[in-house]
Specification:
alpha/beta, seven-stranded mixed sheet, globular, binds zinc ion
C-alpha cells in the first residue's frame, strides 16, 4: 500500500518532537517523493525504511526556511553517499531560483566534484497545473494565499485512486477548496488565523466545503502538547474525522 509519512508537523518553530512540516510519499510501484525539506530528512528516510537512492523527486512548495532549510544538507549527503542518478526538484520560479542561488552563490556546488544531476522543473503560478506524474502518483498544484508565491497540492494515488490534498501555508481561499474537492485525506495547515495562514476552525470549514472525508491538521504550534484544543476547534466546523498529525505518523493510501 502507498504511504504518506509525516516527517515534520510544526509551523515555523520546531521542537524536539515536531520538526518543521514536510512529508514523504511512497508508492506501491517504488516511487518516492519528498514534499518540502525540513531540517535534515535523510536520517528520517532511513528510519522509515527508505534507502537514500530511492528518492526520485522533491517538491518545494515555497521558499520559507521552515520548508526548504534541509535542501543543502540533503543534496550534500546524497552526493557524499555517491549518488549518480538525477534528482528532480519541482517548484515555482520564486522558490527554485532562490534554491539555485543558495547552492551556487552560497555553497558553490558547481565546485563539488562528480555532483549528480539535479533537474529543476519550474511550474507556472496558475491553478490546476499538472506538477508531476510517475507510476504511482499524479500530482497537481494550485497557488495558495501566503506571503510569497506558494503552492498547495492534490495528489492522486494511482493504485488505489485515493486523493490526498495538502493546503500548504495559506489563508482560506477558493483554490484550497478546489484542490481538496472530495479528497480522501485533507492535510491542512493550522498555524492560527492570521495573514497568510489558517486556523483549525478555518481548516474544518475548507474540509466541509470541499467534501473531504478526513481532516489531518499539520503546520501547528508544536509547543502546544495537548492535541485536543486544536482538534476540537476543527470539529466545530467539520463533521468528519479530525486528527492532529504527529512526526513519523503514517497514513496508508
Ligand atoms: Zn510554513
Ligand atoms: Zn510559509
Amino acid at each position: 500500500m502507498a504511504r504518506l509519512i509525516i516527517l515534520g508537523s510544526a509551523a515555523a518553530v520546531s521542537d524536539a518532537e515536531h520538526d518543521n512540516t514536510h512529508f514523504l510519499l511512497e508508492g506501491d510501484r517504488g516511487d518516492v517523493v519528498l514534499v518540502d525539506c525540513g531540517s535534515n530528512p535523510l536520517p528520517k528516510l532511513e528510519r522509515c525504511g527508505i534507502e537514500p537512492g530511492q528518492l526520485q523527486a522533491m517538491i518545494l512548495t515555497h521558499f520559507h526556511p521552515d520548508h526548504v532549510s534541509g535542501v543543502p544538507i540533503l543534496l550534500m549527503q546524497l552526493w557524499v553517499l555517491g549518488r549518480q542518478h538525477p534528482l528532480h526538484i519541482y517548484g515555482l520560479h520564486h522558490c527554485l531560483q532562490r534554491v539555485q542561488a543558495l547552492m551556487l552563490d552560497g555553497f558553490q556546488w558547481d565546485t563539488w566534484p562528480n555532483f549528480f544531476p539535479v533537474i529543476f522543473h519550474t511550474l507556472p503560478e496558475q491553478p490546476d497545473v499538472s506538477l508531476l506524474e510517475n507510476d504511482d502518483f499524479a500530482i497537481r498544484c494550485w497557488p495558495t494565499k501566503h506571503f510569497i508565491p506558494t503552492i498547495g497540492l492534490r495528489i492522486e494515488v494511482k493504485t488505489s485512486r485515493k486523493i490526498v490534498a495538502y493546503s500548504c501555508d495559506t489563508e482560506p481561499i477558493p483554490h484550497i477548496v478546489e484542490l481538496a474537492r472530495d479528497a480522501d485525506l485533507l492535510l491542512h495547515e493550522a498555524t492560527g488565523a492570521s495573514f497568510g495562514h489558517s486556523s483549525a476552525a478555518q481548516a474544518g470549514q475548507v474540509a466541509t466545503q470541499a467534501g473531504a472525508r478526513r481532516l489531518v491538521l499539520v503546520h501547528y504550534d508544536g509547543r502546544q502538547k495537548d492535541p485536543l484544543p486544536l482538534v476540537s476547534e476543527a470539529r466545530a466546523t467539520f463533521a468528519g474525522p479530525v486528527e492532529r498529525a504527529e512526526d513519523f505518523q503514517e497514513f496508508l493510501l
